[in-house]
């Protein structure tokens, strides 16, 4: 009898402990398009690890890769986060640009030449304006990460000029600006999600695609017949660490600070990691038999000229203040 009472007291105690633990511990979903095989997924996982460590297990961020929380449709990620279906995300400016038109800034062909230009934008006035635009749409942006400068691959031939692109079917992301860029270049762009891209490359439904070197390398895009890779650095998509506004408002100030600082640290860590791996990736890709095409200044200039109309068309949708801040940033010596 005595023993039975002891047992039920213990059971009640255990239940109480569990209840306290659940009342305190919180878990949030974090959406990404790419898994932790890629720098992008590693950025999100780093954020989760730092938050877990610094909150001593009180806050768990669970990363859901492959845009699985939006059934693979990466262009719905921002809306899903805004509606609360997703708590947080580490997302590409490309995928969020249908809802935040200002983010098309980063997709403007040949606006940024290199990492220094990209950093001058994200770390300066333009970056602040881009974050303000995200905030206006009901999402709290915390930090920048990086998918990277995007390069062009195809299965047909070395591409060195817009003329080489005539008629090539190129898979592009589901953002209308890309349709304009690749049409201006004389190619035949086809919008589809990343989930559909590899099958389309495999069957030859499309001839080419564009993605950062890290994605080309990790996803082994060369193994689906993409033999030619043109390094043209035509645009870069930064990643944004962000939180649904209601979730943000529900957090005590110290947890907001913790989440925000962890995102900043994870972003910096990932940008360094990603840039630091570029040279080795390029060597690996060449080793696997990919023909890498590097452009002369004159060759690059021909692409810039062919796509100038895209900047003219999209600048008004991006907005004068942001365009001006970005142009100033890239004009710095
Ligand atoms: O779909 C793509 O090309 C990817 C993975 O780079 C993005 O999500 C923007």
Automatic annotation (TrEMBL):
Keywords: Signal. It comes from the Bacteria. It comes from Ectopseudomonas composti. Residues 1-25 form the signal peptide. It holds the Pfam family DctP. This is C4-dicarboxylate ABC transporter. CDD domains: PBP2_TRAP_DctP10. The keyword Signal applies. The lineage of its organism: Bacteria, Pseudomonadati, Pseudomonadota, Gammaproteobacteria, Pseudomonadales. NCBIfam families: dctP, TRAP_S1. InterPro entries: DctP_fam, TRAP_DctP, TRAP_DctP_sf.
